[in-house]
Amino acid sequence: MSALADAFRGQAEHFEALGSPVYARLAERLADDPAPISPIVGDDERWDVPLRLFAAVHYLALSGAAPDALSGRFEDFAAALAGHGEELRRRVETHGVQTNEVQRCTMLLPTFLAAAAETGLPLELIELGPSAGLNLLVDRYRYRYANGSYGPADALLELTTDEQSGGTVPASLLGRELVVHRRRGIDLAPVDATTPDGYLLLRSFVWPGLDERVARLDAAVETLRRMPERPELIQGDYTEVLPRLLAERTADALTLVFETFSTVYLPDAAARQLAEALETAGGDDRPLAWVSVRRWELGAGTDTAFELELRVWPGASRVVAHVDPHGNTLDWRL
Ligand SMILES: C[S@@+](CC[C@H](N)C(=O)[O-])C[C@H]1O[C@@H](n2cnc3c(N)ncnc32)[C@H](O)[C@@H]1O
User: Fold this and answer.
1) Distance CA 124, CA 182 (A)
2) What is the pLDDT of residue 302?
């Protein structure tokens, strides 16, 4: 049990630092005495067990099955564990951490505009690991940047980010139009956020206390509901499915394959396979671009510890921005 106790203790610090005191207190208590959760998690010592467990309990609370489970009183939490052990066990086992952070569109939008400006072509988007596909609606949200705004005036969601001085998105880019002809995503476990269960699943992974995130999620899901044509979410492993989509791609649009915080978790062999599939496709004469987040060695310990890469074949890969994992900070470099 001690690795699990350590996982809860470590997670308690994150919960506190990132704005969820209810989870922080519960996690500390479970780190001191994990007995109430042992029938549920058994000897599962995966690092994300605390996140899976809290999301499972949150799901029960949101769905009305255990409305007081996250009241903040440990007795209410323990009663939910005792009364719903079997369902919690099943949810912890089957549902990995499932988040779809639309705030990351603040880094995607200018990058897509840059790729479209370079080629003068409409885009066909393919997202790797889209979860519910909310970031495939990147052009349907409104944005406020230091040098101007972008997006429909009646958008349900307005996003903004903290731009670092000297690294702001240029007004000339924000003056361009993004035309998206097709939106597809490939995910091991795609979520249909327009269903009650799909919505609650996504919502259950947003920690209590993070109200702005809930508001963003709700506005994005409502945008999705109102889309005349929703993105196509393909269930599968993208390292296996992507080569087929690339082989069938059109010559009339720029196929832009992108990902945020999915490929950083890939094993080396799978990452190589993906890079080779893109390289092979980039070698033919149909337009192709790649946008991806990768770790930035020099950024370790700063707010912007990741770099956003853009490659438009046959050109080389370029760093367009330094970013943080949530899309709250943007240092535009192009
Ligand atoms: C951390 S979430 C990020 C979701 C979304 N990209 C975002 O930024 O909000 C990672 C997503 O990648 C998916 N995923 C991870 N590895 C995958 C693979 N090999 N093939 C397909 N989907 C994968 C997961 O199911 C999950 O939905």
Assistant:
1) 5
2) 79
Judge if the beta carbon of residue 103 lies within 6 A of ligand 1: no
Which backbone phi and psi does 187 adopt, to 5 degrees?
-140, 145
The number of beta carbons lying within 10 Å of the beta carbon of residue 157 is: 23
| Binding site membership of 239 for ligand 1 (Cβ less than 6 Å) | yes
Q: How far apart are CA 311 and CA 288, in angstroms?
A: 8
Q: pLDDT for 105-130, tens place per residue? A: 999 999 999 999 999 999 999 999 99
Query: What confidence score (pLDDT) does residue 256 get?
Result: 98
Residue 1 has pLDDT above 60, yes or no: no
Whether ligand 1 lies within 6 angstroms of the CB of 65 is answered as: no
Class of domain 102-191+228-332: alpha beta
The Cα–Cα gap between 125 and 129 comes to: 13
How far does residue 241's CA lie from ligand 1's centre (Å)? Answer: 14
Cβ atoms within 10 A of the Cβ of 219, count? 18
- Which of 102, 105, 126, 131 has most ligand 1 atoms within 8 Å of CB, for mutation? 131
- Do residues 233 and 183 lie in contact, with contact meaning Cβ atoms separated by under 8 Å? no
Residue linked to tokens 């943007």:
330
What residue ranges do the domains of the chain occupy?
Answer: 2-94, 102-191+228-332
Question: Which token pair is 318?
Answer: 């370029």
Q: Strand, helix or coil at 35?
A: helix
Q: Name the pTM for this structure.
A: 0.94
Atom of ligand 1 nearest to the CA of 238: 20
